[in-house]
Amino acid sequence: VGGSSLMRPSILSRKWSGTSQNSIGSISGDTMDGSAVLEAGVLSLLSDTDVDIGSIDRIQSGQMTLKFEMARKKERRQSIAQRNSLGIPMLDEKRSFSLIFRGAETLDLIVDRGGDREEVLYILNSIIGQYESAKLKVGNEVLLLRYIWNDVDRDDSNTINEKEMGELLNRINFHVKEKSTGAMYQKFAKTLGLTKTQRKQGLSFDQCVTLLHKTKRDMATWQVKPVTQLFYDIFGQFMTKNKVRKKVSATSFLNKFLLTEQGEDNKTMEDVIQIFTKLHQLELADVSNHITEQNYISLEQFEAYLLSRDNDIFNPKREHVCKSSEMNKPLSEYWINSSHNTYLTGDQLTSKSSVEMYTKALYRGCRCLELDIWDGARDEFGNPMPVVYHGRTLTSKILFEDIIKSLEVFLMLNPKTYPIILSLENHCSIPFQQAMASQMKSILGRLLYVPDESSLRGPLPSPSQLRGKVVLKGRRPTTGATDDYDTDDDAADDDLTEMQSVRTEKTTVTGNTKKSQTSVKIAPELAKLTLFHGTKFKTWRESEQALTHHMHSFSESRVRSFCKHNLSQNWIQYNQTHISRTFPSGNRTTSSNYSPILAWATGCQMVALNLQTADEMVRMNYGRFRENGEQGYVRKPSTLLMKGVTEPRTTHIEVKILSGSCIPKPKGVSDGECINPYVNITLFDCSDGREVTTTQVTNTVFNNGFSPIWKFEDTFNFDVKNACVAVMQFTVMDKNSTPTKTDEFIASASIPIACMRQGIRSVQLSDAHNTRSGAFDFASLLVKVMFEHCQAEI
């Protein structure tokens, strides 16, 4: 496809401008609470607003963002007369929608009365669909240039002049001294045969692409380019008649590369033909080495394949959604993507609570959500209004009912979702519990799973059986027992005793429990809706004999305690038929996270993390649940499902970091200095009941994120102790030029060892929120991975 086919204005120019006057209004403004809009009494119009299509993560109907929440709260405090006098329209949910951008930003919109929201959404989704489709036919470097083109072409001339060239190079993170930029520009323009007038007008898009390719190819002429070296090493440097190799045949690509170098034994010539067809349709730099023969590809096309999603280090077989037949085992046989205190936007003491956090978690694949429910006020009719917040703290309160409504909207849009489990931390009095039950039944209706007594005996239901349902975890007491857990606080309090003494199968330690065991009574209306019944842990023998819908919750300290005292095997056996949930220590007031590795290694299904904190533990969790199409359920490995003692599977891995491509600035910002990238390679593993974390670091490449080349002769070796559970994380950092300042996170990718492919592979990088859009859409690493399996299967 020639460059002219997608010239500006085009779908790949990223910009959508609203053109319909008074048709759409925004409540976002510059404030997080919408108060500026409501006080001003007007909606800011989008008649001339640019929207970055490439950075849109999704479009969301309704009013499920924090800005809408704050605007509704403002609305509730104002009478209809006040709003009419100010000219403020009602926040009609049926006319509302939000654009969710990469990371956490939103643009929250309302279609004016008489407008058609569905028509607007159809148009927007069509534009995004065209953009996503067009991207597949464009090489990363070309796509990067298209992404930034509107920003650097400040005079809208559809060309880049000498002055704009410096900004372009800075945007792609390729540093050239200011004095050298002009000389480079003029020299290249002259090689194209441009007159002085044409040089002053600027370079076209295609010419800029060629310049970037030439700059990348010719930079640091003393430095061997890893892709060039690989091309020669694999296929030979010389062709017939001693000519330097410029192309490779389909047969050589299959035999020497896919089958031998990559170890992809299942590949055939039919697969190669499909790969070559895609590569020949790809818009790349217009260079002299252009191959027209369909059964050959050039060095540039080979590089494009190496960096593509098709060559991803994450095994596509493990990433694809499992067949329904693989999701029909009891719930206890799956790891379940789980969140702790889902409602919080930040720390555990003073941050806002938001319904938006539940929607965010669901769209990120989380399927076990936590709600801390307390008695709230009563409405004007005297009906109880349960609220959710972190009790006895300064965190704000949100309505329980609003959360349930957001679940209903999500399931209506995503009816094939595997079960959403609500972990109810119930602190409510009976009338408010009855209101909870009533609200869930009236809002969710058939979407709410209501277990009958017969279903509570025998194995747990499967994800397939509960597909499209909301399942409750709480309490379902059969008697007036008061020793059952009801909240994480109770479990955490018992962990204080656990730190002093550990229960074994032979002894039961009662300990000195100074806490007051105030048991919350459970309304029958709520109990009968509940599947998972949280119970107090005594011994593993008693726990294994309990009904399968009885489950335990443990804080992170008890996870370590059990493993430290060689009780992990008992726990693994218990988790084969029952459910365990683990959660962060109450001391983590900043919402930091513990490593989920040990809990996963003992077969715990619900390993709850503070997903609002974008740290390395949450990124590791993203990697774990990338498997099975990010559906939130991943079948545990066979070593955790076998009866009796099983030894963890081990392996040895060698990693080389070869190069990077199109790596943006931290947080994807457009301004600032060129980055100085280096890569941390971290293995999260466990052995003998302890976490084992190993990090190795590459050298730093200064002033180049466009095409950094690290010392690819360096080899990083890792001994993996539990290959079925371990995760490797590749993290790109920006070395701060000021020694006293902290290096900044740029992007990362987490790959479970069991999902990793050997060979020369692309590592597709994501931002801190695990989104790969906008400036991160093209960012990747090229690595070489070699590993030995000490046992037959990982």
Number of E-state strands: 28
Number of alpha- plus pi-helical segments:
24
Q: Please state how the strands of the largest beta sheet are arranged side by side.
A: 13-12-11-14-15-16-17-18-19-10-20
* N-to-C span: 42 Å
Shape: globular
Instruction: Summarize the main sheet.
Output: 11 strands, mixed
Strand content: 15-25%
The chain-level mean pLDDT equals: 87
Helix and strand composition category: alpha+beta
Question: How large, in whole angstroms, is the Cα Rg?
Answer: 29 Å
The helical percent reads: 25-40%
The residue ranges in which pLDDT falls below 50 over 5 or more consecutive positions are 1-14, 16-24, 27-47, 500-517
Explain the overall architecture.
It is built from 24 helices and 28 strands. The chain is of the alpha+beta class and 794 residues long. It has an 11-stranded mixed sheet. A 5-stranded antiparallel sheet has the order 3-2-7-6-5, covered by helices on one side. Strands 24-21-28-27 form a 4-stranded antiparallel sheet, with no helix packed on it. Strand 6 and strand 7 form a beta hairpin. Helix 6 crosses helix 7. It is globular, with a radius of gyration of 29 Å. The N terminus is likely disordered.
Present the secondary structure layout:
Layout lengths: L14 E3 L6 E3 L8 H6 L3 E2 L4 E3 L3 E6 L4 H11 L3 H7 L9 E6 L4 E6 L5 H19 L4 H13 L9 H10 L6 H14 L4 H6 L3 H14 L7 H10 L11 E3 H12 L7 H13 L14 E3 H8 L9 H4 L14 E6 L16 H8 L4 E7 L12 E2 L9 E2 H14 L6 E7 L3 H15 L25 E5 L13 H11 L25 H4 L2 E5 L5 H6 L4 E6 H9 L3 H7 L5 E4 L13 H5 L4 E4 L6 H9 L8 E3 L15 E11 L15 E11 L2 E8 L18 E5 L6 E8 L9 E9 L6 E6 L15 E10 L5
Parallel strand pairs: 10-19, 11-14, 14-15, 15-16, 16-17, 17-18, 18-19
Antiparallel strand pairs: 1-4, 2-3, 2-7, 5-6, 6-7, 8-9, 10-20, 11-12, 12-13, 21-24, 21-28, 22-23, 22-25, 25-26, 27-28
Helix pairs in contact: 5-6, 5-9, 6-7, 11-12, 15-16, 16-17
